[in-house]
Every structure is written in structure tokens, then in C-alpha cells.
Amino acid sequence: MIRARDLERRYGRRRVFTGVDVVVPRGGFGVVTGPNGSGKTTLLRLFAGLAQPTRGALMVDTDRSRIGYVAHEPLVYRELTAVENLDLFGRLYHVPERRERIGMLLERFSLWEARNERVSTYSRGMTQRLALCRALLHDPDLLVLDEPYSALDENGASLLDRELESLAGDRTFVIATHDPGRLDRLATTTVVLA
Amino acid sequence: MTYLADVAALTRKDLRVELRGRDTLPAMLLFVLSALVVFHFALPEGSGDTAAYGLLWVAIVFTALLGLARAWVPEQEHGVLDGLVLAPCDRSAIWLAKALATLAFLVAAQAVALPAFVLFFEPLDATALAGVLLADIGICAVGSLMSAMAAASRAREVLLPLLVLPLAIPLVIGGVGASVSDEGGRFLLFLALYDGVFAVLSWASFEYVVTE
Predict the structure, then answer these.
(1) What residues in chain A have per-residue pLDDT under 50?
(2) What pLDDT is attached to residue A42?
(3) Is the pTM of this model over 0.95?
(4) Around Cβ B191, how many Cβ atoms within 10 Å?
(5) What whole-number distance in Å separates Cα of residue B162 and Cα of residue A75?
(6) E strand or H helix that includes residue B210
(7) Do residues A87 and A95 make contact, with C-beta atoms less than 8 angstroms apart?
């Protein structure tokens, strides 16, 4: 569960946002939307534990090992293959039956054929699908996804829709998007940043 | 055991990334060999071994700086450091793995550079070699932390030497002392002490460098 009250974040003298109140209950589906520069990414970084608020109270009731995070950047090594990247993170997260889990995710996100190719040869859409595999690898309780649809083609976006639908309810989601209409059916909380 | 397994996985990754990208080691090798060749022709006849050892240490420190400047580049590309910081492993394992990988590159560069030094200048005895190895450990321990700090800044190329060089001065003094002094053992002890103190400080403070 996420509970944020009167949240403010500044970078030096520049205020990114202020007075943000959010409650996403366990199993809830939070959608964060707003124009470019409104602080969506910053808010998600706070929820993921990668940054701290400069004012206000934030409580994220999930251990860091149970958070799956997709950022603007894919957070994978360009010089490693998809399998090597997922194997590294699988080891760091101590994922049980790591190889089976990696194989299953690569199949599910249509990356199995390209599993032994370096990420530097991937298209942006493939890299984004790999980022989603990495975020789901350790079967997290809280998924923090920053613009997960970016770079995905229609097939990839439909695949992600199906994944979100199948996982919603069991897990807590916070998703930043420019297209909140796409997630209307799943959203339980919507935060609009100005 | 989990900690060591995390360090091993991260070190293996660093070595694999370098083997694939070949971004760091070739540059270090080229630099250190070029520097020794230039010094060989620049040093006048009869300059003595002290000057030669001094120049060796100049080459070693700047070769290490070259490696350290690229140490966190793979993590900066695609923002991987955030992914590592979020992982449930002890964050100091990230630093230790980076220090070990950088040490491996530095030792590999010196495996070529030190025979070249012997060929061009003076022989190196066991005390001098031990001094080089201990100084390498110190440079990589401190340098990996400073390099992570510099990597977070836009002016990292300027910032890194400003952070590392003052901290490397005791290592250079210890290394040159171990090479030329009659009491080389005392300098080795000094280097080992430096390594121990700064490795513990770097290990303990890395978490605060990569998190807010």
C-alpha cells in the first residue's frame, strides 16, 4: 500500500510538485498522469525508493526486494544479452528456479528468439519489453511503471494490456502515462499532476 | 555467502561487459605503453633509478584514472545503476565488484607495462612489485567510490581527477618509497594500512553515494 500526504519535491530551488496526496491500497491500481515536466517520473522515483520527498509524508508498505520498477531507461546493460541481463538480476534478487522463470518471461514477451543477442542490437520496443521482463522477474508485489507503453508497437502494447489485466488485483500498481484512457478499466486511483 | 555470490555475479558482469565492449583495457594499455616509451626517450642518460621509478608511478596513476573514468559508464547507459540500487543485495557489493573489476583491468595493463619498464629502465624487485600491487588495491578501492560520486555529476571528467589525485598522493609516496628506499618494508606496511582504512571507509560509505 502507498500513502502519501502533502508531498513536495524540489531540485535545488526548482519545485517539481507540491501538495500531492495519494492513497493506493494493497492490490490497487494507481494511474499518474499530467503534462511533460509535471513530475510524474519524480513521483514514481519516490514510490520506488530511489528518491526522498523534500516535504510531506510518504509510506510505501513494501520491502525494496518486492518492488518492480520500469523507468524511462530500460535499466539493462547494452553489452549483455537478454538472458545475461535477466540472469544477473535474477541472481541479485535470489529468484528461485531462475532459468525457468527467465525462459517463461522471454517467451511471454516474444523475446525468446533474440535471447542470446546483445541488447545494443535490439529495437526500442524490444528493449522496453526486456525492461518489463526485468521488472516482473522477481514476481514483485508493487509494480511502479513509468510510461510502460512508450516505444511499444500495437502488438507490444496489447501484450502489456493483457499482462496488466492478468496481474491487476493480485499486485499493487502505480503507472505513469500520457494516455490514462487506456487504463480506465483497471484504474482504482488517478493522480493528475499539474 | 550470499554477499560473496552477489559480488561474484557483479564482477563477472563487469568483466563480461569489458570483454564485449573493449572500451577500457585497450585504452589503458595504449596509454601506459605510450607513456613509458615517451619517458624512455625523454629521460636523460644517468638520471638514476629514482627518476625512472617516479615516472613509472606517474604512468600507473594516470592509467588507473583512465580506467576509473570509464568504470561506471556501463551503469550510466540505460540507467542501470537505479536497477542495481533497487536490488535487495547489500549496496556495498556493487562497489566491491566494481573495485575488483577495475583492479583486474589495472593488473592486466601492468602485466604488459611492468616488463616494458624493466626493458626500458630498471629492474623491479619483489618489494617494488608488492608496492605496485598494494597501491593498485588502494587506488581501485578509493577510486571506485570517487568515480561513482563523479559519475553522478555532469562534470565527471573534471571532477574525477580532483577527487582521486589528492587521495592517491599517499599511495604514490608509499609506492615510490617501496621501490627506492632501503626500508621498503615500512612503506609496504604503510600501503597496506592505507588500503585497509580506505577500503573500509569506501565500503561503508558507498550506500550514501548511490542513494539520496
Answers:
(1) none
(2) 95
(3) no
(4) 26
(5) 29
(6) helix B184-210
(7) no
CB contact under 8 A, B78 and A78: yes
Task: Supply A124's cell numbers.
Answer: 526500442
Nearest to A79 among B10, B20, B79 (CB): B20
The pLDDT, as a whole number, for residue B153 is 85
Is residue B4 a contact partner of residue B89, using CB atoms and an 8 Å limit?
Answer: no
> Would you say B180 and B53 are in contact if contact means Cβ atoms under 8 Å apart?
yes
Tell me the helix, strand and coil percentages in chain B, rounded to 5. Answer: 85, 0, 15
Q: Rg of the Cα trace of chain A?
A: 17
Q: Give residue A104's pLDDT.
A: 96
Q: What is the CA radius of gyration of chain B?
A: 17
Q: Could you tell me which residues are beta bridge partners of residue A15?
A: A10
CA atoms of A132 and A80, how far apart (whole Å): 16
Residue B79 falls in which region: left (phi positive, over 0), alpha (psi -120 to 50) or beta: left
Strand order in the sheet with A55-60: A14-24, A2-11, A55-60
What φ, ψ does residue A143 adopt, rounded to 5°? -110, 120
Q: How far is A166 from chain B (nearest CA, A)?
A: 24
Chain B interface includes A29 (CB < 8 A): no
Establish if A134 touches chain B: CB-CB under 8 angstroms.
Answer: yes
Question: What is the reported pLDDT for B66?
Answer: 95
The length of chain A in residues reads 194
Q: Which residues of A touch B74 (CB under 8 A)?
A: 77-79
pLDDT in tens, B149-161: 998 888 888 999 9
Of A106, A94, A158, whose CA–CA distance to A132 is shortest? A106
Q: What are the cell numbers at A157?
A: 502494447
Please give the helix or strand (H or E) that residue A92 lies within, else none: helix A82-92
Residue A179: left if φ>0, alpha if ψ -120 to 50, beta else—which one? Answer: beta
Residue for grid cell 630498471: B122
Residue with cell 541481463: A85
Answer whether A76 sits within 8 Å of B5, measured CB to CB: no
pLDDT digits over B17-35, tens only? Answer: 999 988 899 999 999 999 9
Contact A50 B84 (CB under 8 A): no
pLDDT tens per residue across span A125-171: 999 999 999 999 999 999 999 999 998 999 999 999 999 999 998 89
